[in-house]
Amino acid sequence: MVQRGAVAEDRGRVLSDLAHWLTETFGRRPADLAPYERALTHGSQAAANYERLEFLGDRVLGLIVAEWLYETFAGDAEGQLSKRFNALVTGAVCADVARELGVRDHLKLGKQARDDGASDSDNVLGDVMEALIGAWYREAGLDAARMFVRQAWGDRVKAGAKAPQHPKSQLQEWAAAHNRKPPEYRIVERTGPGHAPRFTIAVSVGKLAEATAEGTSKQEAETAAAKALLEKLG
Amino acid sequence: MVQRGAVAEDRGRVLSDLAHWLTETFGRRPADLAPYERALTHGSQAAANYERLEFLGDRVLGLIVAEWLYETFAGDAEGQLSKRFNALVTGAVCADVARELGVRDHLKLGKQARDDGASDSDNVLGDVMEALIGAWYREAGLDAARMFVRQAWGDRVKAGAKAPQHPKSQLQEWAAAHNRKPPEYRIVERTGPGHAPRFTIAVSVGKLAEATAEGTSKQEAETAAAKALLEKLG
């Protein structure tokens, strides 16, 4: 009984964290958490995973970005619009947005996928980002989805055909392009009091190169480490 | 002066025909015909052609079909949804819908493109269909576009992964698959009074085979001829 109570309490805390994060992310508390839980669930974790919502969300994102470009670049021919479009909806950019929003802390992965680094994979984060957009569209409609995407993608739309990449995405692409293992991040040190921690993170690409950096969150330290390693790699 | 008056009258008749057809097609008279004229204009005819609207309409159609499948096939996994999706948004199906709606009579093609058979090309008709959906979405919004697409695509969504094809699309694909020239249609005879004409059309695929059929419109006779030729070809 004690244990069952503890599990229920744990599940309650997870759901309340999720509701809080979704309210912050979408600007409104979702009526039902279930579709969002599903959007955050990888195939390795459950059959009720994000894949169907990603199928839908991919097209929601596509329309919103296409319309945005159509309006913003009234002088562009179709070829130029398509180039911009592809740069904005690519997995790396979706993953970049997902990282900014803190999607990673809410992912539900199976053990194997977690061990394989899925929680920082551009593929997984990008897919989940699209699935979340699909869930939000189902709940709130196109206007709300459009507002969300325009805010989350922000200046990327003006940044020209080649969207600026998050250093972690960039490093991951570098490793893939050079046939190296995906980057691995590990915590070297955690210091400071609970309310003001400092993290030191090391990132390495196989045995090729390593860099270390500090930050006030893991995410910040990882980003700084990826940036430092990219500079080393030229 | 007489000639200029005649040209203006001609243009007036074309626009009034277009307005009539659009009202029938979309169930409401468009406020401004210009975007629809553009959606019907091939690159061979003017720089203000359908390409930008097609870029947008492609994504409008994509979202509407994806959402429709998501709702209709609640038990399908993502892979099955994608297969159905690809079968429904392919150029041949868009062209099929365009033929049913009579898009062909309103196309604006340059002379060369007309001589090349663009007015019955799956590519051109499919692109124009998407551009029209883009124009209608811009004017009337997603709900109206969804109503239009669900009506125009109709039973195709339930027809399984392989959508039934219009005989003319089917014949065109057959010719391409067998490395033959595209089908050519020619009027053999036109009889009957103006209000009740009868057309006899012959269709051939290179020098390989030919079939002839009758109908009360060119379109009807061509469809019957394509069907007859497909039967001959086995």
TrEMBL record, chains A, B:
GO terms for cellular component: cytoplasm. GO terms for molecular function: double-stranded RNA binding; metal ion binding; ribonuclease III activity; rRNA binding. It catalyses: Endonucleolytic cleavage to 5'-phosphomonoester. InterPro entries: dsRBD_dom (IPR014720), RNase_III (IPR011907), RNase_III_dom (IPR000999), RNase_III_sf (IPR036389). It is found in: Cytoplasm. It comes from the Bacteria. Mg(2+) binds at residues 54, 127, 130. One of its GO terms (biological process) is mRNA processing. Residues 166-234 form the DRBM domain. Residues 19-141 form the RNase III domain. It is an enzyme of class 3 (hydrolase). Its EC number is 3.1.26.3. Its cofactor is Mg(2+). The active site is at 58, 130. CDD domains: DSRM_RNAse_III_family, RIBOc. Keywords: Cytoplasm, Endonuclease, Hydrolase, Magnesium, Metal-binding, mRNA processing, Nuclease, RNA-binding, rRNA processing, rRNA-binding, tRNA processing. Digests double-stranded RNA. Involved in the processing of primary rRNA transcript to yield the immediate precursors to the large and small rRNAs (23S and 16S). Processes some mRNAs, and tRNAs when they are encoded in the rRNA operon. Processes pre-crRNA and tracrRNA of type II CRISPR loci if present in the organism. Belongs to the ribonuclease III family. Homodimer. HAMAP family: RNase_III. This is Ribonuclease 3. It comes from Sphingomonas ginsenosidivorax. The lineage of its organism: Bacteria, Pseudomonadati, Pseudomonadota, Alphaproteobacteria, Sphingomonadales.
